[in-house]
Batch of 4 targets.
Target 1
Amino acid sequence: MDGYEFPDSIDDPRVTERFCRQVSGADGDVTLLGVVHDHPASVGRVERALDAIDPDTLALELPPAAVPLYRAYARDGDDRPRFGGEMSAAIRAAPESEVVGIDAPNWSFLRRLLARLVADRVSPAIARRVVSSLSGATREAVACRVAATVTNATSMTVAYDHEPIEYDCSHDDPPEQQAAHERSHVAGVRALLGSVEGGESALAYRDDTREQCMIDRLEELRRSEGDVVAVVGVDHLERLADELSA
């Protein structure tokens, strides 16, 4: 699908410029789909967009170690996957695409983060908070890998700590209703976060480095693989689009 056609050519209120960006380059296009975790509108968005685009590569905001588990989720369920929300729905909607996890933890992220902490001479307190958050993320990634191994080796589907989030709308509601609820939810969350900003230096270091690593990985995939669709949290959408455009 040509850049000028997306997302306007898809007649779906969930697929709009508010949640979708397409960045064209000499080596291919990167299409960014912003999502709200487990939201019916986000699941519908990735299903419709991927059906239209059919990318060479599907990049997901998941640690590489977690991708096998979400592949297993994508195979489970009838109408749509029971677990894994928009990520497993994306894998099922793009069966011919190469699936890549672009989120931390990974070695590139760890090297970059540690180098930044040293260069900025952060306080021991902030460094400890960053390391603590990394330990939790690493344990989750390893647990996802173990759950995937068990799922693929047995007839059970192991859902690692992933009961779907419940919203005041469902997959059975009309797309217009889903889209309206998602917009309201995003606005409410951003207003809440704006009221409590400050004092989160450790998280800022971690999240800024995460985003830069995702940008670098998407650039690399565009150069080596051609067209890429990336499914990322909606809060990452603007920065990733701006940096990839630059």
Target 2
Amino acid sequence: MFLQIDNLCKNFNTKNGTLTVLKNINMAIAQGEFICAVGASGSGKSTLLRQIAGLDTPTIGEVRIEGQRVIAPGPDRGMVFQHYTLYPWMSVQDNAEFGLKLQGIPKKVRREQASYYLSVVGLSAFAKALPKELSGGMKQRVAIARALASEPKILLMDEPFGALDVHTKESMHEFMLDLWQRTNITIFMITHDVEEAVFLSNRIYALGSRPGTVRKEIQIKLPHRNATVKRHSIFHDYRDELMDLLRQHGQEAMLAAA
């Protein structure tokens, strides 16, 4: 299995004692899959992503990529955040090259790699522009190009479209599907947007809250993936199943905390 998460638990020490954020997380993800983890606030989505990225370490359990235990960040994992995290004084080209520069990649090589991925995301014509000259969707595409420029094995996405308006978000969804199909990269995305998860992913892990646990794994099989599928009954069935599941576990968490 390409990405394996085994019995992962994450605790934090607080002034009120130990807080368990993630409990017994188990996931198995094949190369080339588009996976979404969906959950409400308190389900530990971002904490889970940090474990995969190597930005934090599990209290118990482990994360492995191609059999290698994740113990720190690495170029095999590209990261895209909700906010674009672009440097406003740098051009689009320089922003796309930045990760490669940190890795010590020679200037000529990083220029070629970054330029290639700017073309992949459709922004070659804006290479000399500054971020302030771009729309929100274009800024996020620069951030995706920057993540892809290091040619990672997996792309990790932390609610990447949460700050976009509805129209731009829909355009970015179609862009991501096209990008995924063209590059065959493995994508692991967290989101609280149920419709977004159903539209984009082949499998969804639904997370319960307090502590975050995998409540259900759902295989998504849609007849096609374009805007019209959202009017299809099977899309509504997946959406309603997930909504009911998250609502049920949210109510359980509230009762447990009362």
Target 3
Amino acid sequence: MPRLENAALSVSELNRRARQALEQDLGEVWVEGELSGVSRPGSGHIYFTLKDDRAQLRCALFRPRVRFVAAPLRDGDRVKVRGQVSLFEPRGDYQLIVEAVQAAGEGELLAAFERLKARLAVEGVFANARPLPYPPRHLLVLTSPTGAAIRDVLAVLAARWPLTQVTLIPVPVQGREAAPALISALGLLNRQPALDPAHDAILITRGGGSLEDLWAFNDEHLARAIFHSRLPVMSAVGHEVDVTLADFAADMRAPTPSAAAEQLVPDRHERRHRLERLAERLIRAQRARLETEAQRLDHLRARLRHPGEVLAARRRQLAELEGRLRRAMQARLDGEQRREQHLRQRLVLRSPGRLVEQAEQRLTRARGRLHQAMPRELAHHRERLGGLVRELQAVSPLAVLGRGYAILEDEQGQVIRRASEVVPGQALEARLGEGRLALRVRESDGE
């Protein structure tokens, strides 16, 4: 039924109903696309557009949810976002209120990256840590000739240390051809006789990008080629948050191409200022040294005396030293004589004849004690042995046999303890106190 003119909705009411309809019908959804127009106003919220080749969608990521997004959002990144479809009523803008963001396909790539990283680490591919020459005389740069990375590197080198010679080795840094091209270039640069002794180091670099853009630098064969490089290698791939296997395999890593150039060479202005400060310190030190030596020369002039006075003083000193030497020698001789006399007295007390005489006296006394102790000890042991013999005879089986008992044994020598162990006609042997008897069983009462 057509609506009456006076019953028309206000713009705000229509937008409110549209927002409610969108939120109730669509609810929470996942959307994948490319980031564009990322902005971060002072409020702390993040606004961006998610687009594909045919459409685009405004998105808002409010500040409470920003801290849960690990990676920075950059234009051109392909992401998947989860959010609530809604409408911004004041402007009537259809938008997505974002709750979560993750890189599209990043989970699978990161898993593959971690598996390969763990395997190469176990193999020792990340063990390189050779120092790079500082500064290098001739630097070989492997990168795209048209990228921003080479411009940044050359600009920093020219500003800081223009003495370093740079040779660009143009290679692709993205796509399927990148890794094979980098490996081939490394092999060529490290092959004799192509290995020029003037070449100091290799820099592998490129600018930032998504995980997919940088994936060529996670190639296993490229990491091995960097590890086996005879020239030291620095890797500077992507931004500060980007890490690749090439970074781990290299001898050094820099977070960005510009940072790599800053690490490779010193700042010539700083060196110039340092040289100027050192020159000033040297001039001050020379001036102070000259002033000190001048004062020392004046002091030595004041102390300078006639050679005759010096010789007379030396003669007096020599005479004093001669007297001290004589007194010291006499004191030493007196001490040695006293020591000799003391040693002679000790030698008399410890003479070998006297020691032998004392030892013979101790031996005589010990021999007398031994002669007295031996008969007593023999009698004691003889008496103890007799007791043991009597105890042994009391428990000996032979003593039992001597009292008229006998031991029956079968043909195998086993002792017969019960009548049930024999059968009629069985041959037995009886062991008596003296001698043995051969027997044969006539009958047995054993059960």
Target 4
Amino acid sequence: MAPGAEGTRRATSSPPRSCPRGLALRVAAFTSTAAIGMSLLVPVASAQPTPTEPAPSAEDIEHSERQVRERAAEVGRTKAKLAQADGELDRLAVAAAAAVERYNGQRLELQRSLQAHRDAQARLSDADRRLEEARAGLASMAAQLYRNNTGYDQISSALVGDGGPQGFMDRAAMAEVLVKRRTVMVDRVEASKNVADVFRRQAQRALDRHKEAMRRAEEARRLAEDAVSRQQESVDRIEAEKRRLERRLGKAEARTARLKRARERALQSAKAHQAGAAFTGSGRPAADGPITSAAPGAIAVRAALKWLGTPYSWGGGTIAGPSRGIAHGAGIRGFDCSGLAMYAWHKAGVQLDHWTGTQWTSGPRVPLDALRPGDLVFFAKDTSDPDTIHHVGIYIGKGQMVEAPYTGGRVRIASIHRGDLIGATRPSG
């Protein structure tokens, strides 16, 4: 029995003796009415407890939003720096590729010069060999002529040699012909040697030039590749800084969202307490009360916002939280859009498939001007054809949603107002 009812019984059974009977009845009636009113107000009070800490003020939220804007501006500036650094990296990469190709060309020319130098050396060696052979042949012939009495003692050879003077003359004439032929051969070999020597000097000069060109090309290639390496390090540093700032931005956005939700809950709680005095005679509120933080949609929103900044992973996400995905997401632990929606609504007690197709049909359609936190908002390539739905977000209020956006992105808060918005669903299990 309620305490108020128990007080009523005492009041009606034991009125003060000094009170007139009419006064006692009026006191009993007043006490009974008050007890009924208290019994009706108890559930409302228990459903909406008074906050134990001050609600965030509008100034707190404005400060937090200003911080979000500042950090978003930092991210924007860093993205601009990254784009500039990427452009410089592309330019240096092109220059390095050109330097490498010049190096490859010089290497080919050097190989050809080395071959030309080897060929010239071979020609010179061949000319030297033939010259030595000709000289050796000439010396041998001179010795033979001497042995045949046509050598140094020509008078003796003419008088007593074979055939007498006529034989001597014949042998001398033949020797002269042979000597001239050998002399021509020696001259020809000498000329060949001179030409080969010219070729050798030319080949050596060409080889020296190409060696120097090769050295310069090698140095240019090394410097170009070093420049690319340094620029890549710069790009990596800026990319790391961008990720750090994006994490800061995500935290600032999450804090702003928490402050807004805390303020909204505090305002709703205050309105709920004020509504306690507006009951009709039937004991029901005169109008629908505000959505409480225990509503399934609110639970789903809180569950999703917990993972702000988590990487997008194609096929990622289970009812237990982020997971490694498939294909492009195989090495990334995170959520894709429908995986995040499935996880969040599981926390609210509603089972969804990991697919936007069945999530679209998981509950009644909701007009866009009647959205409530937790409603699923869908996006399609053709907004007249649900079969082209490609993305889902979780509405959090004020035209915003929490979403796992795309490969390379992270779970974030974004506007629902896009050209490909097709509609919304309120999951009902």
